[in-house]
């Protein structure tokens, strides 16, 4: 067999392997599993978006290659208007926005567009693994920015070694944060932008969860910092905003040079998203709200956090994201506690070390629970955990 490229050997081992096996075994045994594992909205895409797709797909112009420079113009105009309305930051749709085939695609290609062998990215830990894995595959190296509870799961920028900062090309941030559920305020973004200007680093802000927020909280954008466009590219996604994970559509905004660089790479790899999907997304962002899905997530959040706190945890309710980041009880590793939850309570939670070494000691529980109509499955999960702990 032909030998695969060496870069694939740089992908770190898959840490959820054992849990996946145990899950498959539990399903085969017919166990009633409550899956708090994957962060994928259980609610369907709102009907008005499906209707917009149905009518867009009738147009033969949609069936051909999208030959626009950076993605369907109707889409880029709509998302740029949305961004300006939502964050108060003007965006030039032609030079400062770009269509993505989901934000994961844009994030991974940004690493390939900027990282040469030997280059450095500053990567948070714990984190969505895409930043790290693609830096490695592109031949680069990472310097970890630990996200610690005592710092509100924000990186301590003053702890980044000066020689690493001088060498770094990219700083990856992700707020609202997966897996910790933490949020960043404008003060933090102001510091991060100043840091990246000082060291000539491109700040990549992954804002995939910017619209998954509760209690009237509106997560800010890093681009709201004055002159942030000098150093920031920010990625957004329809996946979590409108329960559209399968549709694969997102967008990037910000620094025109970074947008152009990413587009240069992409235009040699993909041929954009199906324009009918882009048209449906353009309709969504200007005409649809997904509040009822968020209201249900909030019901589940309150049941889960209040329930766990009644069992002795001391958790704050996340202001945004689907995630509850739970310290494991004394004496357990993340993997051991996930295994116990699965084997003794038939509850699936993701071991925190899968997101990096600073995720050890935590598990992530997701509020996107299939089959849960009004929090009853989450309540059942809490009562099973109580029984498991003898409470
Ligand atoms: C932090 C974070 N960024 C990006 C993504 C990718 O989302 P998309 O569906 O837009 O590719 C995810 C998906 O889970 C995520 O958790």
Please bin the fraction of helical residues: 25-40%
* Small molecules held by this entry: pyridoxal-5'-phosphate
Please, what is the CATH homologous superfamily of the largest domain?
Type I PLP-dependent aspartate aminotransferase-like (Major domain)
Strand segment tally: 12
Outline, from the CA principal axes? globular
User: From the alpha-carbon coordinates, what is the Rg to the nearest angstrom?
Assistant: 21 Å
Proportion of beta-strand residues: 5-15%
The number of domains is 2
* Overall CATH architecture of the largest domain: 3-Layer(aba) Sandwich
Compile the SSE list and pairings.
Elements: H1 17-28, E1 34-35, H2 47-56, H3 73-87, E2 97-100, H4 103-114, E3 120-125, H5 130-137, E4 141-146, H6 162-167, E5 168-174, H7 186-199, E6 202-206, E7 232-237, H8 238-241, E8 250-254, H9 256-266, H10 275-287, H11 291-310, E9 323-327, H12 334-345, E10 347-348, E11 350-351, E12 362-366, H13 376-388
Parallel strand pairs: 1-10, 3-4, 3-5, 5-6, 6-7
Antiparallel strand pairs: 2-8, 7-8, 9-12, 11-12
């Amino acid at each position: 067999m032909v030998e695969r490229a060496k870069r694939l050997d740089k992908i770190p081992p898959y840490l959820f392997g054992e849990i996946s096996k145990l899950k498959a075994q539990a399903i085969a045994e017919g166990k009633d599993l409550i899956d708090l594992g994957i962060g994928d909205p259980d609610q369907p895409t709102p009907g008005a978006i499906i209707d917009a797709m149905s009518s867009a797909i009738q147009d033969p112009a949609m069936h051909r290659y999208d030959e626009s420079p950076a993605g369907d113009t109707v889409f880029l105009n709509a998302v740029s208007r949305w961004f300006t309305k939502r964050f108060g930051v003007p965006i030039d749709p032609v030079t400062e926005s770009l269509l993505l085939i989901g934000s994961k695609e844009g994030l991974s290609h940004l690493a390939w567009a900027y990282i040469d062998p030997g280059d450095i990215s500053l990567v948070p830990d714990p984190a969505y693994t895409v930043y790290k894995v693609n830096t490695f595959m592109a031949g680069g190296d990472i310097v970890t920015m630990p996200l610690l509870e005592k710092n509100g799961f924000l990186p301590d920028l003053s702890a980044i070694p000066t020689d690493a900062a001088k060498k770094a090309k990219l700083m990856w941030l992700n707020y609202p944060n997966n897996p910790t559920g933490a949020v960043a305020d404008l003060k933090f973004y102001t510091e991060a932008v100043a840091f990246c200007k000082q060291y000539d680093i491109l700040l990549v802000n992954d804002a995939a969860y910017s619209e998954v927020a509760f209690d009237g909280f509106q997560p800010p954008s890093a681009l709201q910092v004055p002159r942030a466009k000098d150093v920031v590219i920010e990625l957004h996604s329809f996946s979590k905003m409108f329960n559209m994970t399968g549709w694969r559509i997102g967008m990037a905004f910000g620094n025109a040079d970074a947008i152009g660089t990413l587009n240069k790479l992409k235009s040699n790899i993909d041929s954009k998203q199906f324009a009918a999907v882009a048209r449906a997304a353009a309709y969504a962002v200007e005409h649809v709200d997904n509040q009822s899905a968020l209201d249900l997530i909030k019901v589940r959040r309150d049941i889960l956090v209040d329930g766990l706190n009644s069992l002795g945890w001391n958790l704050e309710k996340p202001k945004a994201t689907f995630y509850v980041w739970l310290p494991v009880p004394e004496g357990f590793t993340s993997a051991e506690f996930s295994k116990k939850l699965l084997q003794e309570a038939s509850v699936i939670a993701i071991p925190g070390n899968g997101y990096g070494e600073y995720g050890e000691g935590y598990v992530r529980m997701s509020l996107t629970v299939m089959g849960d109509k009004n929090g009853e499955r989450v309540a059942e999960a809490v009562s099973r955990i109580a029984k498991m702990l003898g409470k």
